[in-house]
Write a structure and sequence with these properties.
Radius of gyration: 23 Å
Shape: globular
Order of helices and strands: HEEEEEEEEEEEEEHHEEEEEEE
CATH architecture: Beta Barrel
Structural class: mainly beta
Number of helices: 3
Helix content: under 10%
Distance between the termini: 29 Å
Strand content: over 45%
CATH topology: Maltoporin, Chain A
């Protein structure tokens, strides 16, 4: 699916059912950037120097009506490679979540759409010819039944379609059914018992094998003034379709555990911690909450992902942490993480990774902001004896001319260090961006 069709459909469905009585908040930013890279191909042996002109729009839509709750955030840009060393292209990412309440406390309809730019080959560099557009669309109804003032049941049905513009083995259709019993302990706490059944069918002959996943788990949620807690514990079973094409496939099962904690310790400080032990795949890995996209800085380019876009199921172990400190003149954030992916069909893809981001910004003058962001990730592929370390450093200056107009200058350094010959690279980028913010 093209990026323009994805955005058009998301916008249309986000506004479905809206009458003139409905009001929604729409913020957007228009920008134009000129960049130059001394190694846009990110190659150790054949660096390609190239300048790029990038018009771009960022938007954030929010609706909190009685009948429709919607949140959509996205970015779309056109990349014009001025030296004609790569084909011009459109890139975009989108996260849309819409809940249409047809009958209060009884029946609602959900729509979600997630588009992103991901690598074709995760072992290669992020050159323009190694990028592809992915899209995950999910929709379906939710039925509710109230048994007493604090106990109710819920039944979900979701249909999902996942596509990639290059790696078609990723393409799939999914059907998910869920039954839940939810008990409200008090105005801030609830517990639930959940039963889910998901069928995954890969629509391309290169994908597969198809499988069913059954999950049963308990969940506890608490939302206090300064603390949010969400914990799940249960078990999952995966049953793969057997065929001569996939002789290594086997049924698997194991513990399901997920958790997230967000603590606003003070008006200036916030901590976060999340963990997961679960069976997952690339399509589920591409689901990103709209609020995450909103915090992306304006200027630069659409964020490139790093998800292996395959049909493989993996057992994921993941821990994420974060700390943010913000004052009027300066702010700082740090977000370390660790993940381990054990692929259930092809162990050649098994990997562990750890890294994090560090960001600091300072406002020396009321209309100037100086920022420094550093990102590091180290990946190990045990089966192929490969170790890569990626480092990105970004020094930026934003000058706010007026309420609506600003300019941003970025000096960026990208590096990859690898234990394999000719797999590392060095890249220096200059970005100059002019921004109009509504």
């Amino acid at each position: 699916m093209s990026m323009s069709k994805t955005l058009a459909r998301a916008g249309a469905l986000a506004l479905a059912g809206y009458g003139t009585a409905y009001a929604f908040q729409l913020d957007y930013t228009l920008s134009g950037a000129l960049s130059h890279s001394d190694n846009l191909s990110e190659s150790a042996t054949n660096p390609i120097s190239e300048s790029t002109l990038i018009p771009r729009i960022d938007f954030n839509l929010k609706e909190e009506g009685a009948e429709v709750q919607a949140r959509a955030a996205g970015e779309i840009e056109y990349r014009d490679y001025l030296g004609n060393k790569f084909d011009n292209e459109v890139r975009g990412q989108l996260s849309t979540v819409v809940n249409w309440i047809i009958s209060p406390r009884r029946f609602s309809f959900d729509f979600e759409d997630y588009a992103s730019v991901q690598p074709v080959n995760v072992l290669a560099s992020n050159a323009p010819n190694n990028q592809q557009q992915t899209n995950v669309l999910t929709l379906g109804p939710t039925f509710n039944a109230r048994f007493d003032p604090t106990l109710y049941g819920q039944a979900d049905l979701r249909l999902s379609d996942s596509t990639a513009s290059v790696t078609h083995e990723f393409d799939s259709t999914r059907v998910l059914g869920g039954l839940r019993a939810i008990k409200e302990l008090n105005p801030t706490d609830r517990i639930s018992a959940n039963l889910e059944d998901q069928n995954v069918h890969f629509t391309n002959a290169a994908g597969g094998p198809d499988y069913d996943r059954y999950s049963v788990y308990g969940r506890y949620q608490s939302k206090l003034a300064s603390l949010d807690l969400d914990m799940s514990l249960g078990y999952s079973w995966l049953k793969f379709d057997t065929s001569a094409q996939f002789p290594l496939s086997r049924d698997v099962s194991g513990l399901l555990a997920r958790g997230a904690l967000n603590w606003h310790a003070t008006a200036q400080s916030a901590f976060s911690l999340a963990f997961a032990r679960q069976y997952s795949d690339a399509a589920e890995n591409l689901v990103v909450d709209p609020s995450v996209l909103v915090v992306n800085p304006v200027g630069g380019a659409v964020t490139l992902g790093a998800a292996p876009v395959t049909s493989e199921v993996f057992l994921e172990h993941r821990v994420d942490a974060g700390y943010v400190y913000q004052q009027e003149a300066w702010s700082a954030r740090i977000a370390p993480y660790y993940r381990k992916l054990d692929y259930q069909i092809d162990p050649q893809q098994n990997q562990t990774a750890h890294g994090g981001t560090l960001g600091v910004s300072y406002r020396p003058r009321p209309l100037w902001t100086v920022s420094f962001d550093a990102t590091e990730e180290t990946r190990k592929y045990t089966a192929i004896a490969r170790r890569d370390e990626d480092v990105r450093l970004d020094l930026s200056l934003v000058d706010q001319f007026s309420r609506h107009w600003s300019a941003r200058l970025d000096l960026i350094r990208n590096e990859r260090n690898s234990n394999l010959p000719d797999q590392g690279f060095r890249e220096n980028i200059v970005f100059l961006t002019f921004i109009y913010r509504r």
